[in-house]
Amino acid sequence: MDPVSQIVEFVFQVEFFLLLFVIIVLKSSIKFVPQNRAWMVERFGKYQSTKEAGLNFIVPFIDRVAADRSLKEQAVDVPSQSAITKDNISLIVDGVLYFRVLDPYKATYGVDDYIFAVTQLAQTTMRSELGKMELDKTFEERDLLNTNIVAAINSASEPWGIQVLRYEIKDIVPPNSVMEAMEAQMKAERVKRAQILESEGDRQAAINVAEGKKQAQVLAAEADKAEQILQAEGEAKAILAVAEAQADALRKVGEAANTEQGQKAIQLDLATKAISAKEAIAKESSVVLLPDSGTDASSLVAQGMSIINSLNQKQKG
After folding, report:
1. CA dist., res. 237 & res. 243, Å (int)
2. What is the average per-residue pLDDT within 137-157?
3. How far apart are CA 51 and CA 108, in angstroms?
């Protein structure tokens, strides 16, 4: 191979290595940061800048990505732990912690492992908050307990650039003796409620029966009253009808008595009644006293007519 060819080949190799070096340098200097992530860049071991989502450039072989921090909300399981309540009851409690990184610089340089730190802080805060409450309150006021834990963690984790969004207690497990006592208490409460409901039902039934009897008596009294009123009205109408009939009869008799035939009919009736009366007296007694003219039927009729005439004259007067 002649010297010219050797020189050309050498130049070609140099250019190839230069091109390869440029490609490597460009690849090392161009960084594409994903969405909701932040890269911490250090230059000679010292913090240089924070690269956010998108296209970014660094100085190759001098700058390096020291940490990759997620800005999304993260959920961390808080392991089970023992806690003692205000009334000295030991509980086993676990939960879930939801948080996010607000300041990636503080989360990287303010604490060594922010996930471990915030988890430990959640455990200690939960034990502290449970120690302020009695056993019954821990079951009844979980929302208040969660809120107090979140407020306490946020206050302590502010230098780490961490924001705790919420804390949820998954399980609260008391000792077996406490569970048995709680079950006995719940059973007693159920029996108590059942007895109360039964007594309320008996009382309501007695009230309903009394109300029914009362209404029945009232209805019966009203029915008797209505019956008596109707009976009285019927009797009054009957008496009125009898009186009107008697009045009509007397009026007709009086009208008939004013006629000549009526007078004769009255005389005949009086004579018949007088004879019938004497016959009755004679049957009852063996001795009958009669006036001198008692045997004369005409005299009896005359006496009756005189009485009728006198009554007629009084009515006309």
Report:
1. 10
2. 85
3. 13
Nearest to 130 by CA among 165, 168, 88, 176: 88
How wide is the angle at C-alpha 90 spanned by C-alphas 89 and 92, nearest 5°?
135
Question: Can you tell me which residue has the tokens 């208490």?
Answer: 185
Cα–Cα distance measured from residue 175 to residue 183, given in angstroms and rounded to the nearest whole number: 12
3-class DSSP assignment, residue 67:
strand
DSSP secondary structure string for all residues of 187-208:
HHHHHHHHHHHHHHHHHHHHHH
Q: What does the pLDDT average to over 91-106?
A: 91
Share of the chain above pLDDT 70, in %: 79
Region of poorest pLDDT, from 66-75, 193-202, 241-250: 241-250
* Residue among 175, 182, 176 at smallest CA distance from 140: 182
3-state secondary structure of 170: strand
**44-66: average pLDDT:** 87
Closest CA to 71 of 111, 116, 40: 40
Q: Return mean pLDDT, the chain.
A: 80
- The residues, any chain, with a CB within 8 Å of residue 149's CB and separated by 6 or more, are 122, 125, 126, 129, 167
Share of the chain above pLDDT 90, in %: 10
Predicted confidence (pLDDT) at residue 100 exceeds the cutoff of 90: yes
From CA 200, how far away is CA 194, in angstroms rounded? 10
DSSP bridge partners of 46: 43
pLDDT of residue 312: 56
Report pTM: 0.52
* Residue length of the chain: 317
- Listed in sequence order, the DSSP H helices in the chain are 3-29, 104-109, 114-130, 135-140, 142-157, 176-257, 260-284, 297-316
Helix (H) or strand (E) holding 286: none
In this structure, are residues 257 and 312 in contact, taking their beta carbons and an 8 Å threshold? yes
In Å, the largest CA–CA distance within the chain is 211
